Amino acid sequence: MPNVLQLREAVCLLGRFPALAGLDLDLDAGGVTLLSGPNGAGKTTLLRLLAGLIPLHSGTGTVLGSDLNTDRVSHRRRLALVGHDTFCYDDLTVRENLVFSAKASGRKAAMGESAMERLGLSHVAGVLHSKLSAGQRRRLALAAAFGRDPELLLLDEPHAGLDSEGREILDEILRETNATGRTVIIASHELDRTRALADREFSIRGGRAYSVEQG
């Protein structure tokens, strides 16, 4: 099984605060990994580091073969991040956002259309992002991520803001994604729900990662 990421003594600073403080982590490709831990432990920082959005201040790291110390850009087309920001454009419609996102990752527009239908957004396909409700924006962000068909999917509290139907749809898609061999990393406080989806778990505490025994 190929290695999808490796971090050694990874340090990331937020101002002067070490959000990651010498974190070590290895993940083989495939499966759903849960990142648990308290607020401020470093979960969001870790996801943003893996996505190439913030730099390593010290230590080493590779993601999808890219060295995070020398190249934080080339692997971005091969992953998708859903975080607190939607990364969608207010002046584009739902369909336009999804088609743009899919094409930006080298995928066909049909991938975005399919994700739109799957997340239950077809009835607002022509609505601007700026006019969507908070729950619809969350669904759109998830649809944009799935429409990119990423090798690595990074999800930060993905169930937040979704209604019960949206949560069930997301869980079903995550199970299907897992079955395809894609790699999914979820940071969440909804442990009962996400543990039912996860193959492995790491507790992030004090900017470091600790393996949690499953079962």
Can I get a quick summary?
By secondary structure, the protein is α/β, with parallel strands linked by helices. It is 30% helix and 29% strand.
Helical content class: 25-40%
Contiguous uncertain segments of 5+ residues: none
How many beta-strand runs? 10
- Our count of helices gives 6
Tell me the CATH superfamily of the domain at 3-88 and 152-212. P-loop containing nucleotide triphosphate hydrolases
Q: Quick one: CATH class of the domain at 3-88 and 152-212?
A: Alpha Beta
Briefly note the CATH topology name of the domain at 3-88 and 152-212. Rossmann fold
| Largest β sheet strand count, sense and barrel closure | 6 strands, mixed
**Quick one: overall form?**
globular
Q: What distance lies between the first and last C-alpha atoms, to the nearest angstrom?
A: 23 Å
